[in-house]
Amino acid sequence: MAGKVLIVMGSDSDWSIMESAAQTLAAFQVEADVYVASAHRTPERALDLSSRARERGYSVIIAGAGAAAHLAGVLASKTTLPVIGVPLSGSALQGLDALYATVQMPSGVPVATVAIDGAKNAALLAIQILAVHDSNLAGRLALEKEAIAAQVEEKDQKVRELAEAGKFSGGAEHGAKRKR
Question: Is the pLDDT of residue 177 over 50?
Answer without folding.
Answer: no
